[in-house]
Amino acid sequence: MTEFTIDHKPAEIVKVFPKASDLFKRHRIDFCCGGDRPLGDVCKERNLDENAVMGALNDAYKAWQKEEHETVDWDRVPATEIIDHIVHTHHAYLNEELPALGRFVSKIFRVHGKNHPHLKELHRLYNDFKVDMEEHTVKEEEEVFPLIKQYEENPNDELLQRIHEANGGLEDEHDAAGNILKRMREITNGFEPPADACNSYRITYARLAELEADTFQHIHLENHVLFKNLARVNG
């Protein structure tokens, strides 16, 4: 592919050009849960300058192509390997980061909440996200992922149906997690700490931005590769 057009969808673009996710986040363009809509439609809906967005996207893509990058064509990777990557990369990250970051979120709310009222909502949103994602990853690892691995070894209609039944609520849960992250970004001004923020405040916002980036990549890989490939089989 030489360049992207307004007919390309954000989810497709991130598969080919992972760094596009940075640009999409700056413009609040959804590339995971709602990433299956043409970029031109998204720009119109968000009142974005279509030419400016496409110009920046293709300029970044051309520059990126000139560099050496190891990219993975996830559509060609077996489901079992994708699952192992999700568990050992994204789930492992959440298991380690969620409790640790939660302590920072609580600390800045306790110390600065009186002067920064939005930290009360941030504290609530973060804890909702933490509980939801902990339950979500357990459901995936204990119920859905083992079924997908079984199906890859022994494809049959009955097993595929069980997968789709078990998977029923996962994408809805992805939508809910994505909406919480979007709201956290909104009330923190894009995770930009105030000028007088202490070191803990700045660390918290930086780690929240990292959490958002990792989670969006995580959801993108599940929705637009793993689950979509299974839906294609079912179709």
TrEMBL record:
Its main location: cytoplasm. GO terms for cellular component: cytoplasm. Pfam families: Hemerythrin, ScdA_N. One of its GO terms (molecular function) is metal ion binding. Residues 84-228 form the Hemerythrin-like domain. It is found in: Cytoplasm. Keywords: Cytoplasm, Iron, Metal-binding. InterPro entries: Hemerythrin-like, RIC_family. This is Iron-sulfur cluster repair di-iron protein. It comes from Lentibacillus cibarius. The lineage of its organism: Bacteria, Bacillati, Bacillota, Bacilli, Bacillales.
